[in-house]
């Protein structure tokens, strides 16, 4: 696999060729990856795979017209054809007054931050197989677990580079390790399924296989023989494993593209309270070994920690350059792009800050409510904020978690839900979007 420097040279070379072919401006993304994954089921090897790929994406501008193309054929003839095709397509594309590269005076210069994202490891398939088997064995050993749906272990490395025609070039590499298990419990015809997974940048940070498997088994064993719930308005506690989904809905609503299109339920919310006082949402692209850490954004701009919500008040939109131009604002360093297409805007390592109240206390104050551990479906309206999802979890009665329940629906409006939430103190940093358990009073629950 190419080094970041070699990948950067590859991206810069195709940009130079595009300029020579008549493009007024251009940028290119190069991505190469190598991954090994092993899957086991019921103690036997089910699949082992190794994949290696390299892909180059080119975006060219002719005036305010643009086109994007990509290829995995990196031969000289293929790249020459790619450049000619991209420039020809751009000349035929409709004009977009907001299109263009990021402002040249905002580009990252100097030494790029070292975020320790790559441990340069490449575990042998035998080591991955042993880890997957250990995860599954631990899950199956939990009392009540009746069957395995499989366990896996994987390792990968990715090199990413970006080059632009107005002065930016840079690259970096990432390593990634994962282990997971999915198991079933209960009698045939009434089985429940649950899982546990862990992903990290450095192998040394990965949870022990026994811990991952045991968590999967304990989760599914607790869900056996679920009942139904009588509907009504009641407190809902979102378990921290799914609470990040609510934060994701807020981030989608404050993307520059959604604001520019006027298709967001938070369209007029900038500078106003969107969460309770004392609650913050922080974005940190510089977190060492973070799952979404990066030294620069998808347009070559510097990235920095951002208070998206400070003391409950929304502080910023998340903007790439095109959305920023349309809104008459400055890009925020949140541009994100793949090999093909134009940049969008996303946050990086995000968390909603922990509250002062233990989760047990938040639950203990509830006379009748529900703890949600799984949501099902895509019932979020980004324009109105209406929220309605299928769910499963546990009934809360007189301050105690009493029995599993399933096949019910939780509903509300996100604007009201955000303002009503109370965060517990159980925040853990396990992924790229983290939140503590969240209690929201007065949600509508409909039984199955």
Automatic annotation (TrEMBL):
<dbReference type="InterPro" id="IPR002510">
    <property type="entry name" value="Metalloprtase-TldD/E_N"/>
</dbReference>
<dbReference type="InterPro" id="IPR045569">
    <property type="entry name" value="Metalloprtase-TldD/E_C"/>
</dbReference>
<dbReference type="InterPro" id="IPR047657">
    <property type="entry name" value="PmbA"/>
</dbReference>
<dbReference type="Pfam" id="PF19289">
    <property type="entry name" value="PmbA_TldD_3rd"/>
</dbReference>
<feature type="domain" description="Metalloprotease TldD/E C-terminal">
    <location>
        <begin position="232"/>
        <end position="447"/>
    </location>
</feature>
<dbReference type="InterPro" id="IPR036059">
    <property type="entry name" value="TldD/PmbA_sf"/>
</dbReference>
<protein>
    <submittedName>
        <fullName>Metallopeptidase TldD-related protein</fullName>
    </submittedName>
</protein>
<dbReference type="InterPro" id="IPR045570">
    <property type="entry name" value="Metalloprtase-TldD/E_cen_dom"/>
</dbReference>
<dbReference type="Pfam" id="PF19290">
    <property type="entry name" value="PmbA_TldD_2nd"/>
</dbReference>
<comment type="similarity">
    <text>Belongs to the peptidase U62 family.</text>
</comment>
<feature type="domain" description="Metalloprotease TldD/E N-terminal">
    <location>
        <begin position="35"/>
        <end position="90"/>
    </location>
</feature>
<dbReference type="Pfam" id="PF01523">
    <property type="entry name" value="PmbA_TldD_1st"/>
</dbReference>
<dbReference type="InterPro" id="IPR035068">
    <property type="entry name" value="TldD/PmbA_N"/>
</dbReference>
<feature type="domain" description="Metalloprotease TldD/E central">
    <location>
        <begin position="121"/>
        <end position="222"/>
    </location>
</feature>
């Amino acid at each position: 696999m190419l080094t970041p420097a070699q990948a950067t040279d590859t991206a810069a070379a195709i940009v130079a060729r595009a300029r020579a072919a008549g493009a007024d401006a251009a940028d290119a993304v190069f991505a190469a990856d190598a991954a090994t994954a092993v899957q086991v089921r019921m103690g036997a090897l089910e699949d082992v795979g190794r994949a290696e790929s390299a892909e180059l994406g080119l975006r060219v501008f002719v005036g305010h017209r643009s086109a994007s193309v990509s290829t995995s054929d990196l031969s000289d003839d293929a790249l020459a054809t790619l450049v000619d095709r991209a420039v020809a397509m751009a000349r035929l594309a409709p004009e977009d007054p907001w299109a263009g590269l990021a402002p040249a005076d905002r580009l990252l210069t100097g030494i790029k931050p070292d975020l320790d994202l790559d441990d340069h490891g490449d575990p042998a398939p035998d080591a991955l197989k042993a880890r997957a088997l250990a995860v599954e064995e631990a899950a199956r050993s939990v009392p009540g677990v009746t069957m395995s749906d499989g366990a896996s272990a994987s390792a990968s490395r990715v090199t990413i580079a970006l080059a632009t025609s107005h002065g930016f070039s840079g690259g970096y590499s990432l390593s990634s390790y994962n282990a997971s298990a999915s198991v079933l419990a209960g009698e045939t015809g009434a089985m429940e399924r649950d899982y546990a997974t862990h992903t990290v940048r450095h192998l040394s940070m990965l949870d022990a296989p026994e811990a991952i498997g045991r968590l999967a088994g304990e989760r599914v064993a607790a869900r056996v023989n679920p009942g139904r719930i009588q509907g009504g308005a009641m407190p809902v506690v979102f378990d921290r494993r799914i609470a990040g989904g609510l934060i994701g809905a807020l981030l989608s609503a404050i993307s520059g593209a959604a604001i520019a299109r006027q298709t967001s339920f938070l369209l007029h919310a900038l500078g106003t309270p969107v969460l309770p006082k004392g609650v913050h949402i922080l974005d940190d692209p510089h977190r060492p070994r973070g799952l979404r850490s990066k030294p620069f954004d998808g347009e070559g701009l510097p990235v920095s920690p951002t208070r998206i919500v400070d003391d409950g008040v929304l502080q910023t939109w998340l903007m790439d350059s095109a959305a920023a131009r349309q809104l008459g604002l400055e890009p925020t360093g949140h541009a994100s792009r793949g090999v093909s297409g134009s940049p969008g805007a996303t946050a990086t390592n995000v968390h909603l800050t922990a509250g002062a109240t233990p989760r047990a206390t938040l639950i203990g104050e509830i006379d009748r409510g529900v703890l949600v551990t799984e949501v099902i479906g895509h019932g979020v309206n980004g324009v109105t904020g209406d929220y309605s999802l299928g769910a499963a979890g546990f009934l809360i009665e007189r301050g105690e978690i009493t029995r599993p329940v399933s096949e019910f629906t939780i509903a509300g409006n996100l604007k009201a839900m955000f303002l009503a939430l109370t965060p517990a103190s159980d925040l853990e940093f396990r992924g790229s979007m983290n939140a503590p358990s969240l209690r929201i009073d007065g949600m509508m629950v409909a039984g199955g």
